[in-house]
Known about the structure:
Its main location: mitochondrion. The chain has 13 helices and 2 strands. The protein is mainly α. It has a single domain, classed as Mitochondrial carrier domain (Mitochondrial carrier fold). Strand 1 and strand 2 (7-8) form a beta hairpin.
Amino acid sequence: MTIKDGLSSSFVETIAGFTAGIVSTLCLHPLDLLKTRLQVDRSSPSQLGGSLRVIREISRREGGITAFYRGLTPNIIGNSTSWALYFLCYGKTKDLMRRLRGSRVLELTSADYFVASGLAGLATSFLTNPIWVIKTRMLSTGSNAPGAYASFTTGVTQIYRSEGISGFYRGLLPALFGVSHGALQFMAYEKLKAYRTRMSSASRTSGDSIGLGATPARQLGNIDFFLTSSLSKIFAGCVTYPYQVLRSRLQTYDAHLVYRGVRDAMAQIWAQEGFGGFYKGLGPNLLRVLPSTWAAIQLPKDISLAQFFDLWQVKLFAMNIVMRAKTPY
Length: 329
């Protein structure tokens, strides 16, 4: 890890991840709302055109475009905090592993990446679960629905009064199982990144061997970055997506009246909706998380201290982050 202008890169990565989480959430919140509505829909099996049906219903019954931004506050708080915590814990754990082995430059194994990501995910899931409970409840219902929370603070107050502290941790068990998502994603990302670097080096060596002369190491460019981040996210998302459906079902207002626990929720979804029930909302979810992943993975790599303290530079940087990838690996 390097030091930039007196600040550790772990600190810069944490703040940058926080910023990336805010920017991506502002842009992609409507897709998150659409995904949540599909996940908690128990009225019909998964089918093509479900997203369009939900969009029409929200537009017609809940007040137009503003209805697609219901629950924005807990979503911003949750995503920005999650990314900041995740990058902080993930980076610190990797550094600790290298120090324990006596080398700060040692390439970690797939198992190392999995453990580092898993530990970061466990901590992040536990600390942010109360935010996700409120977010799920606000996104799953319109503001005009009976008992719907009017705001984030209203949700906090009502949950504490009616359900106690335990109410903030509904859906925690599937969320903890979902830690494997982050582990699989970052493991795949790191390994794909290393693979692209080796391929580039092999190509350069081949050019040297036929007399083309030495060629400087090529930085991974936009295509490399988009491929590695997209493939790793799609892989992890498809493997672990069912946990998101379970978590959303268990965090709704009436979950305690419908499900007796995780196993009962799984059994009911399987019996009533089939295999497709565990993948409701997958399409909007992939559309939502891929741009968010591009920003959140790339932003911590490029930002400098000068940019961090210059608010307009940070804003401009975040808006254009998906258009460039300058980081050498």
